[in-house]
Amino acid sequence: MKHLIILLESLIIVLYIDSEYKNTTIFTQLNLGEQKYTSYYSLDIIENKILTLENVQEKDKVQIWKDSFIKEEVLEFFPNMEVMKEVYNDRVSDNGVFKEKFFEYMVELQDSYIGGELDEEGFKKAFSNPPF
Questions:
Q1: Domain spans, the chain
Q2: Which of 18, 53, 71, 125 would give a disulfide with 94, using CB separation of 3.0 to 4.6 Å?
């Protein structure tokens, strides 16, 4: 009987934790010019917002990125490029080519900044306005 009570209590705790920490999706409307696109933001287990670009047309992803608060959060870690890359990888979800392409662009910008071709302002401007 004692073991049954412990088992039931454990099951209740596990179900409570599972229901509390499931990913929650928040739908946010982004106005992009005259068109409206729905971008999906979800919360991970520790309630970080994730920009989900899955099933969004590739041509729209750049504009969504430009309007995203995730872009600003990544830039907050400048000039620590390694943290910027880590935050970007953790906070952007994409099933297309945008995430990989932008990551490569970040590496190019990092090289240009380290090489002295870009100053801080130039880096942030280029980061916020990718050319693709």
A1: 26-128
A2: 53
